[in-house]
Design brief:
- The protein has about 375 residues and is of the alpha/beta class.
- It has 10 helices and 12 strands.
- It has helices spanning about 5-15, 20-50, 75-90, 125-135, 145-160, 220-235, 280-290, 310-320, 330-335, 360-375; strands at about 65-70, 95-100, 110-115, 140-145, 160-165, 180-185, 210-215, 240-250, 270-275, 295-300, 325, 345-355.
- It has a 12-stranded mixed β-sheet, with helices on both faces.
Amino acid sequence: MSREGFSRLLEKLWSGTAAEGPAERMAFTLLIGLGAAYGVVQAMRARAYERGWLNGWRAPCPVVSIGNLAAGGTGKTPLTLWLAQRSLALGFSPAIVSRGYRQGSRRPVTVVSDGRGTRLDPPEAADEAALLARRLPGVPVLTAPRRPLGMARAVAEFHADLLLLDDGFQHLPARRDLDLVLLDGNDPLGNGRVLPGGPLREFPSALRRADGLILTRVASPEAGEEAKRRLHALFPDKPVMLCQHRWTGWRRLGAGADGGNGEGAPFEGAALAFCGLARPEEFRRSLEARGVPLVGWIPLPDHHDYRREEVAAWSRQARSLGARGLICTEKDVVKLDPSWSDLPIHYPLLDLAFFEEPRWLLQRLQALAEANLRS
């Protein structure tokens, strides 16, 4: 079976579409069984850490984990950005530590940003880490497959007194003081099954070890409240917060930090859009909802590695169709160079916006800050 065929099979299974024929039913049964077995292994691993049978590592400062239950993007990077900004306002000297998914560097610890101006870009650096380093120039950003190594270096070398552990929910060796889990507000638990039988990394019961749940991509307060009620029925003791991702302006690649051109359309005329995301169609719908006319649309695999030749070809294609520029996401742009395109490349800035002030979360951050002062 081709990769495209397998992807279509997973899409049918995860969406609840009935299998067609005995071969597909057998494949569904196998995938569901594999997922159940994987979920049991994950549950046993979590129990081993909970009971102390496996040892975790405790950092000498507070640790806030940002993670998710489902595979694919749920907006961890915008929340990490939000938390870094809030912690700076509270007087912390935070650092961000992540795994460094699909980065070129093979070092045990990679310093993507030292918080003082030195920055590493893709392909050596991971996409999300490079994005955070650009948006947070005063915050150290490190990646490490073994997260405790990166956490220890952030404290020892950069004197961090708060560690933000990006994509940390399943990384149980790193002890944390606050465990936040993001869920898609449109479909928080999917079909309830574990990979590959469903989109979840663990059984839904794993959310019991989370401190707070954050529903992202919430279309409206009413839709968010309905999803919130469903989660509270399963986890009545967990605070649930509602948020969405908002476009706060536009930037042009190569224009520098002050090269934005404000709200609204990034330029007059049509554009060719492309992106490499887990859910690329969401970006296209966002562009269409904002009235950006598209002459072309190129969805790419998540974490796509861009080449000069392909971007130049898209630029020529866009120009031949009368476009005035190219559009991609902020995550894509960290791997692009403005010289690759004859047309300007624009991208929207994406930030997190809660529907209501997240009092519980702000209080927990304030408590960590006060504890830090006393220690």
